[in-house]
Amino acid sequence: MKKKSASQSAFFNFRVLLASVFCLAGVLIALLGSGAFSDASAQATANNSASAQQFGQTTVIHALHSDLSLPLREQPLIWPPMEAEHEANLNPKIPNQHQDGADPVIQSSFWRRMINTPTIPGPLLNWAGIAYPGVSCNCAPPDPNGEVGKTQYLQMVNEGLQVFDKTSGTSVFGPVAITSIWSGFGGACQSSGNGDPIVVYDQLADRWIISQFATPSGASVPQDECIAISQTGDATGAWYRYDFHLTSNFLDYPKLGVWPDGYYMSANVFNTLGTSFLGPQPFVFDRVKMLVGDPTATSQTPGIIGGSGESPFLPADLDGILPPPVGDPNHYVEFPQGSPLVYKIRAYHVDFTTPANSTFTLEASVPAASFTALCPSTRNCVPQLGTSSGLDAIGDRMMFRNPYRRFSDGHESLLDNYTVSANSVAGIRWIELRRTQPGNWGIFQESTYQPDSTWRWMGSLGSDNQGNIALGFSASSSSINPQIRYAGRLATDPLNTLSGEQHLFDGTGSQSGTSNRWGDYTDITVDPADDCTFYYTNEYYTTTASFNWRTRIGYFKFTGCTAPQEGTAHFVVTACNGGAPISNASVSIDSRPYGATLSNGTYDAILTPGSHTYSVLKTGVGSQNGNFNITNGQTTNVNVCLGANPSPTPTATSTPTPMATATATATATATATATATPIATFTPISTATATATATFTPTPTVPPSPTPTATATATATATATPTPTPTPAITLSARGYLVNGKRRADLTWSGATSTNVDIYRNGTRIVTTTNNGLYTDRIGGRGHGSFTYQVCNAGTNACSNQATVTF
């Protein structure tokens, strides 16, 4: 983690004090001007005690506050840094309860020689990421991590972010402070974000999720988690923002994982002094609601697990095109512990409807190979060239991430790594857990990568769709500066071996000081577009210094890896009555939550070829179920309408001649039973004269013999209204915000053709106003709520799309 401490007194001087005064004054003025200061603080104070409810063993935590931001590219941007440089607070160490033992799974000398003939390819491209001072942080370590999406790569460090074009490495946006996303939000997320940032990409929904912890007013340590979900697949756009007050203790080292039913998180919890480890704690956040910005989205937790004697764990993070089995819980993997040594795999099943049914249970205890702990009593551990200052190896926990992948042959995989002492240097223990249904998790591969006398640590592990594995890490020794490297193996290589190593980028300096901190984590992820290309980010130094870190991003792929067979389901969701696009409709596919529609009513899902089912729902509007087929390499349109179906209009088959100018004669013969007077119903649909003949059998009062038959002929002439002209396309957008704590919404639209327009809020017309493209709805009131707007040409049903603001 990164946060200030009393140890910063060595850096404290009048210049720092003056800068701090100006910084705090600026923040105060901004908060007072927006009206967010008093309102957000009052809300946090009022809700801290009321934001949690107990249901059996589950605690349900309500968000202190949520909203929708302006597009990030339009937010007030915080840059450059205003703080003086400072060291990070020491990331509290987990109590060492490990019993050392000989490592039986270090790669053999034969496979050490294979390092000279690597099967893993070199980098295709690498480029500079965010550099020190780290965007408003001026701190170390940077905590580098990043994710790759359809077209972008988003990198985060303490306390900044930057968006790149994923192919060229060109900066698309930033770097800016993470606080920029929280501008105008109020509370701890806006003013007291402390770092430990994480970004993950939800490829089921094509959304980004970012988080960092924050210190609420009156507290001395991070206790809140600030989570934002992008409104679209563009990381520079708008974000749904949430502040969850999760604990009254010290929430440290939070890590996220994507799963169909939730965003799962782990944290290491300490007392507020950071001197006592209380245990690991899991959390889950309501993914379905957060994808649409629902202010009622909650978090759940079973509390601290096992106490101070329990090891830290990580939640599973979904990779690949195949989601887990329906109803499958998230799988947390725990750092090995006990005697005999085991990996505990825990299943977190969440029920957001009935929280008392949520469970966090021990799923499996898998035997682990013994090892020797690396530097359990010191942070001055990993040697570097040119300095006596060593680097912290953080060998007491699993390293980010715990990627989950399901393969087409039916097996599932979890990949994890941590750092151990191997032949008197740092090596990386990596494992692959596998499960085949029906069955439970077991070790498929387990090995310690230590091919020579170089120290390797700070790993991150992933696999592509063919099962090839890549491990990114830092490398250093007394004869080299810290370097960024990666190793890997083909799925066809002998088990328990990494068959080659490459250099992503070699640093030319070492780190001195900064409490020996390095990392605290790195991140390797896989491109969702081809499911082959690995992206990796880590830190390095160009010159030996106390504060001068740099970060690098690069990508590579195994030769012969090809994208899986897939197609696109293109959902178009509209109102049954009028055809207006419906945004924020939740889409489930094959009984799993997938994503939500955008403002234009569309949502794209990448799926395997074959037959699929769907369910589309928007609360208060309607739902629809159906099925469709996916063909490899093609897009299937899935048209869905929600709400009351309009009355069907009679139609006739005709030539393309416009109906308003056509003349037609239609004759229809029907047989009907009548009690007395025959009735014939005829509805003309054009300016035509039509003749209809009806044949019927009257019901007699006395059974006749034979039954008489009567024939009646009716002639009708009518002039119908010509086919109306197409409804004009009105495009509407809405932005909600607070003024002195009162709710307002700015509406902007284009495409309306009448002099005046009708404005509807939640289906009720609230005003008829001039068609000037702008209106402010002073909703008033305080607290949470969602408001859906439409703009229509006055007195008509020619209306815009629906736009929703959430408070």
The helix/strand class is: mainly beta
Terminal CA distance reads 31 Å
Query: Based on DSSP secondary structure assignment, what is the total number of beta strands?
Result: 53
Radius of gyration, in Å, reads 31 Å
**Biggest sheet descriptor:** 6 strands, antiparallel
Notable characteristics:
6% helix; 6-stranded antiparallel sheet; 807 residues; mainly beta; 5-stranded antiparallel sheet
Report on this model:
The chain has about 800 residues and is mainly beta. The chain has 5 helices and 53 strands. Strands 1-2-18-17-16-15 form a 6-stranded antiparallel sheet. It has a 5-stranded antiparallel sheet with strand order 3-14-13-12-11. It has a 5-stranded mixed sheet with strand order 20-26-27-28-29, with no helix packed on it. A hairpin with a 2-residue loop joins strand 27 (about 410-420) and strand 28.
Map the helices and strands:
Blueprint: H1 14-34, H2 36-47, E1 52-55, E2 58-62, E3 65-68, E4 86-87, H3 109-113, E5 125-128, E6 139-140, E7 145-148, E8 152-157, E9 160-165, E10 171-177, H4 187-191, E11 193-202, E12 207-214, E13 224-230, E14 239-245, E15 250-259, E16 262-270, E17 277-285, H5 287-290, E18 298-301, E19 313-314, E20 317-319, E21 330-334, E22 342-349, E23 359-367, E24 382-384, E25 387-391, E26 403-406, E27 411-422, E28 425-436, E29 442-449, E30 455-463, E31 469-477, E32 480-489, E33 500-506, E34 523-526, E35 534-541, E36 549-556, E37 567-575, E38 586-589, E39 592-596, E40 602-607, E41 610-618, E42 622-630, E43 635-642, E44 669-674, E45 688-698, E46 710-718, E47 731-739, E48 742-750, E49 756-761, E50 764-770, E51 774-777, E52 786-793, E53 803-806
Parallel strand pairs: 4-6, 20-26, 37-43, 44-45
Antiparallel strand pairs: 1-2, 2-18, 3-14, 5-36, 7-8, 8-9, 9-10, 11-12, 12-13, 13-14, 15-16, 16-17, 17-18, 19-21, 21-22, 22-23, 24-25, 26-27, 27-28, 28-29, 30-31, 31-32, 32-33, 34-35, 35-36, 37-40, 38-39, 38-41, 41-42, 45-46, 47-48, 48-51, 49-50, 49-52, 52-53
